[in-house]
Specification:
heterodimer; A: 222 residues; 6-stranded mixed sheet; 26% strand; globular; B: 222 residues; mainly alpha
């Protein structure tokens, strides 16, 4: 496992308390080491692109940052919470887009987002307008009441992005957000997942492209 | 909508839309009654034999639903959805156990009248026996949800659930079948030890609801 390479592409404000701070992060799966010696500091509002080949630990890193996976060793601080001890304080503050969509196939996109909204404690009167606005933004309003199982992979990706940003999280963790999307869909989702208004973003990608162009840092794994 | 209501509604909506569990449970129970009818070569059952046919049949039918209880959470990201949300994770345990109780009551509304039609000379003991079955359903749902969660995290999930669950259900079967022996007796229901069986089932329910509440959060951890 090679050590991390961090390329600063924009002057960061070091005075701010970091949104993400990793020191010597390591994660093992049995005998196999997925991540080793990862050091990283991301300031609030920053954008990081994580690049690397298949199996380099990109998705594992995102799951650790989301509090879904425990680090084997090293220090992990996300939004001021020390993980894994303070994972409970992080819940509801992260928008996580996984490698596989977090969507129930036998529910409609609207029902999936209503479920996510209820779990995140959104005000009931705000839920319908918020969901309608997101579906309009990604061009999914006409299919909002079809079952997810009947949608294409690109449509599922758009709905899953809506789910990830529904509760207006402080930190976005995106595993290949452009996957399955055509250029028009990419253009539509770009404002939803941008690092702006103090929101921090970590996006995983296989290769250099739009994800790295928009990023302040590039973290290369593997 | 509360997180509990939203999760319970999701499970019931998916079941009503797909009918993956309930028809299979009912079909299994009716098929088992037909097999017992010809296997025992009896058109009338009472006492311990009646309880001995009815209670295990309902229990094995319940295993079909228990095996499927967390399939969507495992395959469609439902566990991550709950783990990322700012909710007490035991809400998933409560919602799943409640859904299972509803499935079991629905099963019994179909299976018990068919059992009575096949085997019982008098249905006078069925009303008090319904209370026994309801308490047994709560215990079965609490234990089944707990064990199904453990099994879901394992690669041998299809084997693990029945292998761990059935020994844990022995006290519940003893109490439900013991009550059934007296309530379905040939001369009409005998309430001699009714309170004892109710107490035993109530205690079983309480213990496994508390164990589920205490351990479920830990079981969902990485």
């Amino acid at each position: 496992m090679e050590r991390t390479v961090v390329e600063p592409t924009r002057e960061a404000n070091r005075a701010l308390k970091p949104a993400i701070e990793l020191a010597g992060l390591r994660r093992d799966f049995g005998d196999r080491t997925a991540l080793d010696g990862i050091d990283l500091r991301v300031d609030p509002g920053g954008s990081v692109a994580v690049l690397g080949p298949n199996g380099s630990g990109k998705s594992t890193l995102l799951r650790i940052l989301a509090g879904l996976l425990r680090p084997t060793s090293g220090q992990v601080s996300v939004l001021g919470c020390s993980l894994p001890k303070e994972t409970h304080l992080l819940r509801g503050r992260i928008g996580y887009l996984g490698h596989e969509p977090i969507l129930y196939r036998d529910l409609t996109p609207r029902e999936n987002l209503e479920l996510a909204a209820a779990l995140h404690g959104l005000e009931s009167e705000a839920i319908s307008p918020r969901i309608a606005a997101l579906f309009d933004a990604v061009g999914m309003s006409p299919r909002a009441d079809d079952r997810v199982a009947e949608l294409s992979a690109g449509m599922k990706q758009r709905i899953d992005i809506c789910r990830a940003v529904l509760h207006e999280p402080e930190l976005l963790l995106l595993d290949e957000p452009d996957a399955h999307l055509d250029p028009e869909a990419r253009r539509r989702i770009a404002p939803l997942i941008a690092a702006e208004n103090g929101r921090t973003r970590v996006a995983v990608s296989h290769d250099r492209g739009p994800a790295t162009e928009e990023a302040d840092f590039v973290l290369e794994l593997g | 909508m509360t997180p509990f209501t939203a999760l319970l509604r999701k499970d019931l909506t998916v079941e009503l839309r797909t009918f993956r569990s309930l028809p299979a449970m009912a079909l299994f129970a009716v098929t088992a009654f037909v097999i017992f009818r010809f296997g025992l070569d009896r058109t009338s059952l009472n006492g311990e034999l009646a309880a001995g046919v009815l209670v295990p049949t309902l229990l094995f039918a319940a295993l079909l639903a228990i095996n499927r209880l967390f399939v969507a959470e495992r395959e469609e990201g439902g566990f991550d959805l709950v783990r990322l949300a700012p909710v007490d994770r035991t809400v998933l345990f409560a919602a799943k156990a409640s859904a299972l109780v509803i499935y079991l009551v629905a099963l019994e509304l179909v299976a018990v009248p068919i059992f009575a039609l096949f085997f019982l000379d008098s249905a006078s003991g069925l009303l008090p026996f319904a209370l026994i079955l309801l308490l047994a359903d709560i215990g079965l749902a609490a234990t089944g949800t707990l064990i199904s969660t453990i099994a879901t995290m394992s690669s041998a999930r299809d084997l693990l659930a029945p292998l761990i669950l059935l020994p844990l259900l022995v006290p519940l079967v003893i109490a439900a079948a013991g009550a059934g022996e007296h309530l379905l007796a040939a001369g009409g229901p005998d309430y001699g030890r009714f309170g004892t069986w109710l107490g035993l089932l109530g205690l079983y329910d309480l213990i496994f609801l508390l164990v589920g509440y205490a351990t479920f959060d830990f079981l969902l951890d990485d």
